[in-house]
Amino acid sequence: RLHCDEINRMAIVFLHSMIEEIIRSFVFQAATEDPMTLVRWFLSRQDISTSVLQTALQEANTQEEVMSRIAMAKLSVITEAALVKKVSLRLSETLQRTSIQGIGDIKKMLSICNYAIDDYFLRKSEAAITRVCSRRNLIVHNMDEKDGEALSVDVETIDEWADQIRDFLMVVICGSSCKKVEEQKIDEGREA
C-alpha cells in the first residue's frame, strides 16, 4: 500500500513529465509547419564549411534558398522534401533527448519555432515550474531526501503547482499569449 508521500512524489514526477511532453510536442508541431524554421534550427546546430556556403551563395537567389541549399548539402539530400524529412527526424530525436530543468529550458525550446511567451504568464508560472523541476530532480536522483531526511509536500501545494502549470501549458497550446517573435517585434515597434 502506498503512503501519501509516495503518491505526492509520483504526482510531481508526472507534472514534470507532462510539461516536457507538451512542450516537446508543441515545438515539434510548430517547427514542422514551417520548413524554413526547421532549416534555421538545423543550421544553427551545424558548422558550415566555406565551400558549401560559397556553392549555396552562387546557386541561390534568396536567403531561404541559400539556407535550404546549405542544409541539403550538409545532409546529402537533393530534394526539399527529403531535407524536411531528415531535419524533422533530427529535431524529433533532439527533442526526445532534451530535459526541461526550468523556465529557461522552456524558453530555449520555444525559440526553436520562433515563439515567445507573454512575460505575464512566464512570471505567473515560473515559480511553480521551477519548484516542480527541482523537486522532480530531488525525487529521481536523491530519493526526495535532503541532508538524510525524507521531505514531504502537501497535496494543496501540488494542486497549486498543477493549476499554475496547467494554465501555463494551456497558454502555450492555445497560443493566446504565444506570438511569433517577429509579430511581437512588429507590435513593439508600433508602440514606440
Task: Describe the structure concisely.
The chain is mainly alpha-helical and 192 residues long. It is 76% helix and 5% strand.
Class computed from helices, strands and strand pairing: mainly alpha
Mean pLDDT across residues: 82
Poorly predicted tracts of residues:
none
Report the span from N to C terminus: 61 Å
**Shape annotation:** elongated
Percent of residues in beta strands: 5-15%
Query: Total strand count, please?
Result: 4
Cα gyration radius (Å): 21 Å
Total helices: the number is 9
H/E element order: HHHHHHEHEEHEH
The description of the largest β-sheet is: 2 strands, antiparallel
Helix content: over 70%
Oligomeric state of the chains? single chain
Description of the structure:
The protein has 192 residues and is mainly alpha-helical. The protein is built from 9 helices and 4 strands; from the N terminus they run ααααααβαββαβα. A two-stranded antiparallel sheet has the order 1-4. A two-stranded antiparallel ribbon has the order 2-3. The longest helix is centred in the first third of the chain and has 29 residues, at 4-32. It is elongated, with a radius of gyration of 21 Å. It starts with a helix and ends with a helix. The model has no long low-confidence stretch (mean pLDDT 82).
